[in-house]
Amino acid sequence: MKLEDIKSLFSKHKEGQLYGRYITNQDIEPLLNKLPKEASVNVIGRSVQDNPIYSVQIGSGPKRILLWSQMHGNESTTTKALFDLLNSLLNGQSALKHLLETCTLYIIPILNPDGAAAYTRINANEVDLNRDAQNLTQPESRVLRAVFNDFKPHFCYNLHGQRTIFSAGATNKSATVSFLTPAEDEACTITAQRKVSMEVIAVMNAALQQEIPNQVGVYDDAFNINCVGDTFQSEQVPTILFESGHYHEDYDREKTRELIYLSYIVSLNYIAKNDVTGANYKAYLEIPENDKLFLDIIIRNAKVEGELVDIGIQYQETLIDKKLEFVPKILKIEKLDGIYGHKEIEANGNEVLNESGEALEIDSENVLVRINGEKVLLKTK
């Protein structure tokens, strides 16, 4: 499919009821209730706090694909894109009809509803579900494992979000979308099923390079059998980690949402139309590995207590009265050569103080600073 056609589908079918980063069961339940009869919606389990975990199954094709999102409750961009995808696939006039004839999709939109409501990575028992694949101590982990056992997928899509700190390699380009084909052994052997997932990722990367050149990365594939992706890959199922990251000034992750949607369509279309053997895996190896070279804001050449330094600021994502706030926090006061800011402010050697006119301190939260006496707002718009 042409990218312009996919972008047109996104514009037409984007789910308007979902916006921003704070997405919970309360947001998706009205959408699940209005899905057409072609979608099978079920409660497949309950969370620690007895909240329902929903599934949506669509399609009747022989190629089975399992997709789960918000295993980490505060990683919601892929969830928004899932509902955009559902709207597109379930539209009677859609150009994507062949996907449902060739594939069967089993979607878990929010695996960790308690973490989603609290806007935390962990579940209500303070367990990272992505480190519970072997011990299965949590009800949410057991739900996913049961689905994997029963559905017997040919592909797994492990859907996540990443922080703004990541660069696509050792560059000043943000890793707006990242991928990984997880390892299945300590040696990180490039096995047959890893080659299959590498081939699919390479196809998505080729498409994304047309939209966000040099802004796609891959993660280090160090093996951890406690991670879900590593476990499923080790059980011979090609598994793809999706990570939605930062696009310029897009803290609500709405542009990234479109890019994830594009990745869904491109990959599903490729799987539907091809017998993916892994023969074309090598392009994956050319995608740069993520580095951590970004801060949200850097104030350059600032005078702090008589010393010329840079000031590194990172937003703390804080839920206040069920509204997500991006609170600026000073992490570094030093020269930050080789580190980049998503926003950079030039102090030109002038003194930088906090709002009260006092010296800045590491770990302090500052909505604004004073540069040479002038107020400069640090919060996002």
UniProtKB/TrEMBL annotation:
<keyword id="KW-0862">Zinc</keyword>
<dbReference type="GO" id="GO:0008270">
    <property type="term" value="F:zinc ion binding"/>
</dbReference>
<keyword id="KW-0378">Hydrolase</keyword>
<dbReference type="GO" id="GO:0004181">
    <property type="term" value="F:metallocarboxypeptidase activity"/>
</dbReference>
<dbReference type="GO" id="GO:0006508">
    <property type="term" value="P:proteolysis"/>
</dbReference>
<protein>
    <submittedName>
        <fullName>Peptidase M14</fullName>
    </submittedName>
</protein>
<feature type="active site" description="Proton donor/acceptor">
    <location>
        <position position="243"/>
    </location>
</feature>
<keyword id="KW-0482">Metalloprotease</keyword>
<comment type="similarity">
    <text>Belongs to the peptidase M14 family.</text>
</comment>
<feature type="domain" description="Peptidase M14">
    <location>
        <begin position="15"/>
        <end position="271"/>
    </location>
</feature>
<dbReference type="GO" id="GO:0005615">
    <property type="term" value="C:extracellular space"/>
</dbReference>
<dbReference type="Pfam" id="PF00246">
    <property type="entry name" value="Peptidase_M14"/>
</dbReference>
<keyword id="KW-0645">Protease</keyword>
<dbReference type="InterPro" id="IPR000834">
    <property type="entry name" value="Peptidase_M14"/>
</dbReference>
